[in-house]
Amino acid sequence: TGVRERRRMGSGETASTMGAEAARAALERAGNPSIDAILLATASPDTLFPSTACLVQRRLDLGGVPAFDLAAACSGFIYALVLAEAMNGTGRIGTALVIGSEAMTRLVDYGDRSTCVLFGDGAGAVVLGAAAEGGMRAARWGADGSQSDLIYFGPPADDLDADPGIRMAGKGTFRLAVERLTETAQGLCADAGWAVEDVDHVIPHQANLRIVEATAKRLGVGMDRVFFNGDRFGNTSSASIPLALADADRTGRLRRGDRIVSVAFGSGATWGGVALEWSLEPPPR
Questions:
Q1: Which pLDDT score is estimated for 84?
Q2: 204 part of a folded domain
């Protein structure tokens, strides 16, 4: 799996508390702009309602702007980015706060060793708005409900009276994930007018190292151009890409003008990706 360690929520922590902390960091990095909407991707909300986005909104004192959750499992952050960029393009909103926050360890079945060792808790966020240069160059998303049995939350199929937990068909998930991640990345490059060789960084959903390495191999991209921090955080579902972006930015790996492809695959089955040109200089060290 490539997972050496991961993070687990402490007492009193939830998807909304982690999401609020990630949002504060993203807002500070962006210069604390005015926010017109809050989009939060999660598969592990604090409660069924109100939305975790509204609970984050309360913590940030950003009342008055629309705030809502998206449920697309590990693809959720990409879905939220695509939606926020589309709303920005129509003029419906100016600047959006896009968050991925997950409390996955409370969903795992610790008796199922095929899944319980993979997942961790965490949150990441970005601020999306108009920029003088850079930004999203292409976006793709999709879903296939006929594959909904690959990854789901519930009892095992052979013991419906058992407690619910995350269930995954490992071989089928691996095969379809690598196919969709590869196809999506190739399509994004074509849509953006890039060759795969032009991409500076591939920042994928941190599912596990096998999936990431197999996707990179199919793309013909060396792992030196792939950002992987799943060894330290595990699979944090919709939080994994914003966590990886923040990690790469904090460590100075990203430079203004860098070409980035981010792709994700998750339960549903869902998938998606974006091609980005990074618009920030590295933060002071």
A1: 98
A2: yes
What is the C-alpha to C-alpha distance for residues 218 and 105, in angstroms, rounded to an integer? 31
Residue pointed to by tokens 């693809």: 75
- Tell me, yes or no, if the pTM score tops 0.85: yes
Q: For the chain, state the CA radius of gyration.
A: 18
Angle at 201 between CA 196 and CA 207, to 5 degrees: 100
pLDDT confidence of residue 2: 94
Taking only the tens place, the pLDDT of each residue in 30-66 is 999 999 999 999 999 999 999 999 999 999 999 999 9
My answer on whether 127 and 141 are in the same domain is no
DSSP state of 140: E
Question: What amino acid positions are annotated as catalytic residues?
Answer: 74, 205, 235
In angstroms, rounded to a whole number, what is the distance separating the alpha carbons of residues 76 and 45?
A: 13
> What whole-number distance in Å separates Cα of residue 229 and Cα of residue 205?
10
Say yes or no: 43 and 97 in one domain.
Answer: yes
Domain stops at, among 132, 149, 183: 132
Position 132 scores a pLDDT of 83
Interaxial angle between packed helices 209-219 and 170-192, expressed in degrees from 0 to 180 and rounded to the nearest 10: 40
Residues 200 and 79 in one domain: no
